[in-house]
């Protein structure tokens, strides 16, 4: 799976409110699969589908095909425009599209744009807190890219309040706390992440960085 797919695809069918059904779902799934193999062809077919039906999922697949071509800015812009055009009553779909746009902006190394799209998605789903942890983690990643460690920690803590046993959120919060010189709290988070995912080497890397930070008395930055 490509880097773009790894970041973008997990959200596609995450929420039933935004998922297509029947023939549209099948065609969308085929289009997404094609975008991972031959993104140029997938884009052409998605746009032909869009011209015939004006389906939001056709435009969505076209945007994803652009992302698979490393045209992150173009794909992100299309996804966020599509989200704004969707019926406001369909909060699930709008949140998915804003989330996808945010992840595409992260791939484009545009954390400000990513953050604003994740914020829109979070706002759309405020009435359903169980849907928020992943979005809060994503926005925290945008804050971290901006080196706003305090706000990154706040979002990760909110995520963990809803879903406590999340090794990714713990690992990211450990890094955020390390960069704020809260070394003891950071170490506790890293150890908790290791307990949850003892086979994930990233957890041990973060713990190693924290221990090095304690040794040198300053946040350790890996080259």
Describe this entry's structure for a reader.
The chain is mostly helical and 223 residues long. The chain folds into 2 domains: 127 residues, Alpha Horseshoe (Serine Threonine Protein Phosphatase 5, Tetratricopeptide repeat), CATH 1.25.40; 90 residues, Serine Threonine Protein Phosphatase 5, Tetratricopeptide repeat (Alpha Horseshoe). The chain has 12 helices and no strands.
Tertiary shape: elongated
CATH topology of the largest domain, by name, is Serine Threonine Protein Phosphatase 5, Tetratricopeptide repeat
CATH superfamily of the largest domain: Tetratricopeptide repeat domain
Number of strands: 0
Content-based structural category: mainly alpha
Q: In CATH's first tier, which class of the largest domain applies?
A: Mainly Alpha
Mind telling me which CATH architecture of the largest domain this is? Alpha Horseshoe
Task: Report the total helices.
Answer: 12
In short:
The protein is mainly alpha-helical and 223 residues long. The chain has 12 helices and no strands.
Give the arrangement of secondary structure elements.
Blueprint lengths: L2 H6 L13 H16 L1 H15 L2 H13 L3 H14 L5 H17 L3 H14 L7 H14 L3 H14 L4 H12 L4 H14 L4 H16 L7
Features:
223 residues, mainly alpha, Serine Threonine Protein Phosphatase 5, Tetratricopeptide repeat, elongated
């Amino acid at each position: 799976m490509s880097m773009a797919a790894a970041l973008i695809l997990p959200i596609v069918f995450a929420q039933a409110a935004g998922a297509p059904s029947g023939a549209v779902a099948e065609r969308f799934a085929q289009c997404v699969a094609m975008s991972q193999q031959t993104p140029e062809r997938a884009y052409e077919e998605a746009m032909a589908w869009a011209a015939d039906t004006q389906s939001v999922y056709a435009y969505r697949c076209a945007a994803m095909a652009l992302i698979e071509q490393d045209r992150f800015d173009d794909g992100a812009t299309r996804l966020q425009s599509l989200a704004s055009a969707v019926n406001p009553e369909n909060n699930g779909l709008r949140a998915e599209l804003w989330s996808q746009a945010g992840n595409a902006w992260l791939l484009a190394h545009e954390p400000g744009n990513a953050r604003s799209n994740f914020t829109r998605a979070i706002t759309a789903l405020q009435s359903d807190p169980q849907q928020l942890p992943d979005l809060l983690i994503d926005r925290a990643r945008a804050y971290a890219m901006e080196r706003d460690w305090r706000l990154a920690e706040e979002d990760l803590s909110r995520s963990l309040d809803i879903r406590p046993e999340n090794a990714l959120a713990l690992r990211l919060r450990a890094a955020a706390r390390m960069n704020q010189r809260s070394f003891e709290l950071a170490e506790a988070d890293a150890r908790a992440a290791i307990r949850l995912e003892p086979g994930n080497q990233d957890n041990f890397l973060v713990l190693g960085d924290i221990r090095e930070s304690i040794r040198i008395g300053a946040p350790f930055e890996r080259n």
